[in-house]
Amino acid sequence: MTTPLDDQRNYRLPPVCILGLGLIGGSIMRDLAARGERVYGYNRSRSGAYAANKEGFDASTDLSATLDRAAGDEALIIIAVPMSAVESILDNIAARAPHCGITDVVSVKKPVYDLVRSRGLAPRYVGGHPMSGTENSGWNASHVGLFERAAWAVAYDWAAERTDAGEPVDPSWTTLFAQVCTLAALSGAEAVPVTVHHHDEAVARVSHLPHVIAESLAIVGDHGGTLAQSLAAGSFKGATRVAGTDPELVRNMCETNAEALVPVLDEFISLLGSARTALAGDTPTVKALSEAGNRAFVRMTARSGARRESVSPVRISSRPVMRVHPGAPGWVGQLKQIEDLGGRVEVF
Amino acid sequence: MTTPLDDQRNYRLPPVCILGLGLIGGSIMRDLAARGERVYGYNRSRSGAYAANKEGFDASTDLSATLDRAAGDEALIIIAVPMSAVESILDNIAARAPHCGITDVVSVKKPVYDLVRSRGLAPRYVGGHPMSGTENSGWNASHVGLFERAAWAVAYDWAAERTDAGEPVDPSWTTLFAQVCTLAALSGAEAVPVTVHHHDEAVARVSHLPHVIAESLAIVGDHGGTLAQSLAAGSFKGATRVAGTDPELVRNMCETNAEALVPVLDEFISLLGSARTALAGDTPTVKALSEAGNRAFVRMTARSGARRESVSPVRISSRPVMRVHPGAPGWVGQLKQIEDLGGRVEVF
Q1: How close B206 gets to chain A, by Cα (Å)?
Q2: Beta bridge pairs of residue A104
Q3: According to CATH, where is 1.10.3660.10 located in chain B?
Q4: What top-level class would CATH report for the domain A13-194+315-347?
Q5: Cα nearest neighbour of A286 on chain B
Q6: Which residue of B has its CA nearest to A336?
Q7: Segment B244-254, tens digit of pLDDT
Q8: Which of A194, A222, A231 sits opposite B151 (nearest CB)?
Q9: B130 - beta bridge partners?
């Protein structure tokens, strides 16, 4: 029996150069190294690079030297820095390694794509976003298996734009797309094709709004003083966990995706306003909200992420799968179909 | 070395009669039985009682017979039904077992206390609320250890009212208070003294608001369709988990605590409104929110619940503790001090 990964051995990766060895970049480095891939990286902070080297990884604090090396061995470059540092990193890549394939793991996709395009790097870029993280950050929080069964959004806008314009997709881009899907698979994740616009709208709902909520709820709980702190249990802890995230990272996510986040926040505030009205009436009720919320929860749970079969120890993905040969006739149309389903793509 | 439980052996429990063998009542039955206490109960649904009996527990579907038995052996009665059924249960207790000590595990305390008082049962009542639960319900979801290290709010209003009025506290009430603290300890929980008003305000913040948020966020996520469902990860799942709760139970919690919940909901909506304004400006920012939210999170985490020491496998409570001898001079004043600290009480 072949696994998705066996099929993808056609696309074993070139050397991988990770720029930024924090929680995400560091975890990718560990996963790739564990799979026997060639991987090295750059980290701005000396302490992170030192810790990585001490564990036997290949990390440098010299960005220029790292990019020269990437250019020399035609590495796949992964941008794993916060959004606020992407512009400067792209300038360095454009100057020193413009022919390398580029992907990224930033939590918004359109702002990155705009920066990429404005530098003429779009033909060598396939955006990515692994939907996995914790409230911790930095190399010391990174670990093998962080992305196991997670969705890894892979943006196919470049191919869609060419196809919509009746133009061919450059084979080097097609190969890069397959490599990024393989990168996701090697990290244990499931590649979910997205366009940057759809991605940013979806993550505003399921990631950035939850962060805004967590911060706000932490404040409301804290206003309750020590008694509220003492009585806080699972529902509070679950909803506020990501308020433990470094505020700078939250700013990077939410501020750069403000365009998509504001209307989603309005939708949420409007629901709460209705709940408030129904609760403040003569006969307080949350009937409509709790029933609609529970139905929505059941749908989200049934369809999102991986589930564990009751008997088998193997976790089964609940995402529909489509096997796609990048560059084959109609392949971009297939990606659009998968995106509509929130499905995963396996390249062969 | 003596443990808190050893000290509380002075207050070994009478037989315990649990009315309602769902997640909470069923888990208490299991914990008490595992400790060798005498425990039996009533459950409205035949399937729940049947399942309990099949596992060797002593469960009946006959409320009258169960209350007659409780009256006969002077049991401690635990009301473990949803708020909507409390009134009818209290009427039955008043009719058949009015001399038994009564406690409850309902998630609001003032509405229960009002019903208790209107039936003249207050001298035989000490309200309780174990701060532990899951999104599942019913006997089959119950399990040993559900309350391990959880806060178990224990209401001392009756004693405070007597003391404030310069009247003595009936020794039978004092004994009952100690028994309820012992019940919490036997279940692995930590007794946190509360007044019903402070309790309801605090749980509006840390439990009922999170439920309203979970329902609303589930709906907003679901509006994102299958792609949002596919991309939903930890932050979304953590914040929406309790939307899996039976909507009837959510209604029972939130509707009966509407008086405390509405102002807390207003506070939350106001914070989101400020966040929305800051995000919709020319330079979108969540700086103020993310920094205040993170500080609040750190405070809540530092002070709430139990933590695991880095070396020791033993979980250490982070709640300050005060040892109190119920009925001793100044003991009600001590309870007020502990409540202000969100601390736990150990009776001796």
Answers
A1: 5
A2: A79
A3: 200-285
A4: alpha beta
A5: B251
A6: B227
A7: 999 998 998 99
A8: A231
A9: B152
